[in-house]
């Protein structure tokens, strides 16, 4: 179990409930060696190179939990193929943005949730993008981090988008380095998108995803303007809308259930 010093009490309780030995808990902070005799990551590093583990593409990489929109939150089995496929899909539609110089991402989304895990962590890792990670969100710290670290890209949820558009505190900070704003997790109203652009001069690009799709399904492309839309599907993904009772495929403008097929769809 990997944790932080401030969360050790919670980690100890969780480990005890799951039957995990205290010796199997580690922290990234260097002071971990002096806290409850829990080793730090650095203390566990050896001089010998470990034997690489052979892992198949269809083996489970993450067991992420859904948001529970239709009931209780469910564990979703995402394979290495699912994760890598979605990373490639993201790189395909956002290639021009990812190639820009001096990209710095500010991440406040929880990394145990698929949105933050992929869009804030994994994409940054494979593109070598500098990323500032916040342990929790509060508006003053968020704005200060943008100013201090000259953040260029940020991933939002609608409540934070609302704060950026309307909170007077925003005027107290220099956000001029921001170039790209993405929003997901819930619908972004058209008027809110317009308010953000009016205030910051940046078009907020909305996307749609779900844990079961690892997660991105559709997103507005760079340079597109599609207010009230989540944009076109990512590459390699097909979708159709069907009647929930008959399974019959429906036409444009008809409401039904969305069915997806692609390499990023869960095991």
Automatic annotation (TrEMBL):
Family named by the database record: Belongs to the ATP-dependent AMP-binding enzyme family.
Native source species: Lunasporangiospora selenospora
Protein name per Swiss-Prot or TrEMBL: AMP-dependent synthetase/ligase domain-containing protein
Pfam families found in the cross-reference section: AMP-binding (PF00501)
Coiled coil: none
Keyword Ligase: yes
Gene3D superfamilies in alphabetical order: 3.40.50.980, Luciferase, Domain 3
Domain AMP-dependent synthetase/ligase: 43-267
């Amino acid at each position: 179990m990997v944790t932080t010093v401030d969360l050790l009490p919670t980690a100890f309780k969780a480990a005890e409930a799951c039957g995990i030995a205290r010796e199997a808990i580690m922290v990234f902070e260097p002071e971990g060696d002096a806290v409850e005799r829990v080793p730090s990551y650095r203390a566990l590093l050896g001089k010998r190179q470990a034997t690489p583990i052979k892992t198949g593409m269809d083996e489970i990489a993450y067991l992420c939990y859904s948001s529970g929109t239709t009931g209780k939150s469910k564990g979703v089995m995402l394979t290495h193929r699912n994760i890598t496929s979605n990373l490639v899909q993201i790189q395909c539609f956002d290639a021009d943005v990812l190639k820009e110089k001096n990209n710095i991402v500010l991440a406040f989304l929880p990394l145990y949730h698929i949105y933050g895990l992929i869009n804030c962590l994994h994409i940054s890792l494979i593109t070598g993008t500098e990323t500032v990670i916040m342990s929790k969100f509060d508006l003053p710290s968020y704005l200060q981090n943008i100013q201090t670290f000259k953040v260029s890209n940020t991933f939002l949820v609608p409540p934070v988008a609302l704060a950026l558009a309307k909170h007077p505190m925003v005027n107290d900070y220099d956000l001029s380095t921001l170039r790209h704003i993405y929003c997901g997790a819930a619908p972004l109203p058209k008027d809110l998108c317009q308010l953000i652009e009016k205030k910051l001069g940046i078009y907020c690009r909305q996307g749609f995803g779900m844990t079961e799709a690892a997660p991105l399904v559709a997103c507005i492309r760079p340079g597109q303007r599609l207010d009230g839309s989540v944009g076109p599907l990512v590459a390699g993904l097909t979708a159709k809308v069907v009647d929930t009772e008959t399974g019959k495929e429906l036409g444009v403008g008809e409401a039904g259930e969305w069915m997806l097929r692609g390499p990023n769809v869960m095991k």
